[in-house]
Amino acid sequence: MAWRLEPARPDDLAPIAALEAAVFREPLSQAELEALWARPDVTYVVFRDGPRLAAYFGFQVTGPTAHVISNATDPAYRRRGLGSRILREAEPLARAKGARWYLGEVRVSNAEQRRILARLGWSELGVCPRFFRDGEDAVVVWRLIEDGR
Ligand SMILES: CC(C)(COP(=O)(O)OP(=O)(O)OC[C@H]1O[C@@H](n2cnc3c(N)ncnc32)[C@H](O)[C@@H]1OP(=O)(O)O)[C@@H](O)C(=O)NCCC(=O)NCCS
User: Fold this and answer.
1) In the chain, where are the structural domains located?
2) Could you identify the atom of ligand 1 that is nearest to the CA of residue 72?
3) From ligand 1's centre to the CA of 36, what distance in Å?
4) Beta bridge partners of 53
5) Inter-residue contact 106 to 118 (CB < 8 Å)
6) Partner residues linked to 57 by β-bridges
7) Which CATH fold topology does 6-144 show?
8) What is the pTM of this model?
9) Angle, alpha carbons 128-16-64 (nearest 5°)
């Protein structure tokens, strides 16, 4: 299947909220997602399988930093490379908005995402104790967004 990265539309926000609720311990609500999606400094991109949302990624650009809000792949579409591709294929969008690097926080227990990020060339900068509301530590992760020059 030829996946095409697309900007999220308003009708993607309910399935994104449903996926957030299914996979995250501290999910964003649909209202929070709507408020973020409406901001000019926030970008949400998706992969769709026909009408069905397969994966999404949201980030917020502040100066040179594209801060990862969250990304997830629907469990039915995992292990097809979408979680990796969505981060890579959004890089030119983040770069066009002025970002020079991605920055994110990943739960120390999220081995799958940490492995994916390592493979994509992200660095683990350090651990922030009790970053998440439930007390789990975060690994702060960073990746240079290359210019393509
Ligand atoms: C983390 C997450 C986004 C990964 O999504 P994904 O679409 O499955 O990611 P990928 O397919 O790129 O990679 C996942 C694994 O599948 C493997 N894979 C990728 N393409 C594959 C293929 N064609 N065939 C078989 N395996 C494949 C990768 O090698 C990787 O395996 P590894 O962990 O053993 O190295 C997904 O598990 C998820 O939504 N988790 C919950 C939310 C979350 O933690 N988000 C990140 C924090 S914000």
Assistant:
1) 6-144
2) 39
3) 25
4) 48
5) no
6) 45, 71
7) Aminopeptidase (3.40.630)
8) 0.94
9) 45
Fill in the amino acid letter for 51: P
pLDDT tens by residue, 11-58: 999 999 999 999 999 999 999 999 999 999 999 999 999 999 999 999
Work out the widest C-alpha separation in the chain, in whole angstroms.
Answer: 42
Q: Give residues (CB < 6 A) around ligand 1.
A: 23, 55, 70-73, 78-84, 106, 110, 112-113, 115-116
Q: Print burial letters for 101-140: b (CB count within 10 Å at least 16), e (below 16).
A: bbbbebbbeeeebbebbeebebeeeeeeeebeeeeeebbe
Which residue lies with its CA nearest to atom 28 of ligand 1? Answer: 79
Q: What is the pLDDT of residues 104-128, one digit of tens each?
A: 999 999 999 999 999 999 999 999 9
13 φ, ψ (degrees, to nearest 5): -70, -35
Cα–ligand 1 centroid distance for 112 (angstroms): 6
